[in-house]
Amino acid sequence: xxxxxxxxxxxxxxxxxxxxxxxxxxxxxxxxxxxxxxxxxxxxxxxxxxxxxxxxxxxxxxxxxxxxxxxxxxxxxxxxxxxxxxxxxxxxxxxxxxxxxxxxxxxxxxxxxxxxxxxxxxxxxxxxxxxxxxxxxxxxxxxxxxxxxxxxxxxxxxxxxxxxxxxxxxxxxxxxxxxxxxxxxxxxxxxxxxxxxxxxxxxxxxxxxxxxxxxxxxxxxxxxxxxxxxxxxxxxxxxxxxxxxxxxxxxxxxxxxxxxxxxxxxxxxxxxxxxxxxxxxxxxxxxxxxxxxxxxxxxxxxxxxxxxxxxxxxxxxxxxxxxxxxxxxxxxxxxxxxxxxxxxxxxxxxxxxxxxxxxxxxxxxxxxxxxxxxxxxxxxx
Length: 381
Fold this sequence. Notes:
Distance between the termini: 64 Å
Number of strands: 10
Keywords: Cytoplasm, tRNA processing
Shape: globular
Largest sheet: 6 strands, mixed
Number of helices: 13
Family: Belongs to the CTU2/NCS2 family.
Order of helices and strands: EEHEHEHEHHHHEHHEEHHHEEH
InterPro entries: CTU2, Rossmann-like_a/b/a_fold
CATH class of the largest domain: Alpha Beta
Low-confidence stretches: 334-355
Strand order of the largest sheet: 5-4-3-6-8-7
CATH superfamily of the largest domain: HUPs
Pfam families: CTU2
Strand content: 5-15%
Helix content: 25-40%
Structural class: alpha/beta
Mean pLDDT: 81
Pathway: tRNA modification; 5-methoxycarbonylmethyl-2-thiouridine-tRNA biosynthesis
């Protein structure tokens, strides 16, 4: 996005243009309106004239403190403020903000800054290890899914249990994959506890494109429509992506200009793939780096990735067997890298039979990730 110093805004035709957005020269205010309209359009069905008067919806908004989720909260907060100040005098939905501390304890001071900036909403903050409390079914799943030497000792702290489970996975790709699954399970569990109607993810078009590509690369292409498209999911709760029509670099510019400076929202740079060995490089990191570096040059191609996934006809989310780990329906058509076994041919079993038997069903993607379990140490002579 180039910075302009001459010419007038093509929209208002009054103020000097400061940004070139999708080949259009816009002033700062019209740029704000352009980005905001992309998000608000995705929330159109929740506008006052379309909302039921006696049915106040509640949405869960996962906040990572990054550019995308912070900008989503900012724009939706502006929309609700306009609704309250209008003749309607009410807002058509409530937002509950959830922050999950991925590494250890979450940053409570940072969340307090968001509470102060956006007081209309309610807030919850939990560490990732709280999944053992909010999603109790995960206890049995990881006990069976973990590596050959993994033992889930419930006498340990939740953080120790989580760290021990992650260490049973031998590659960065497997650990990143499992972290994403655990995060989704935790967010869904809390969303259901709070009786939310939907989860509003802050994923931009850029992020959705990298997710779609990484899902295919990891053998999770079958579940891609539920992971990047709006609508009901196999988890029994709706996923919505209001930022899906905005690119990451556009959000970075918007956040630097529009968000309160006190929030200190910066575009965190991913580590350069050139400085990472293949041992420490996940599929998500590799594809996110590619999409973010190439997305600004080839915007149409990146947008087409998400549009193509949107066109896929996903089967009803409540039919068929579901994976006990990721919760997605099981595609029974694949065979590599696992051999089909178990009742009905729906259970993937590793060819080398290193793992403990799973009593539940695994999808193809989770079976592939399970190939990265740490192998048992050879017995000493």
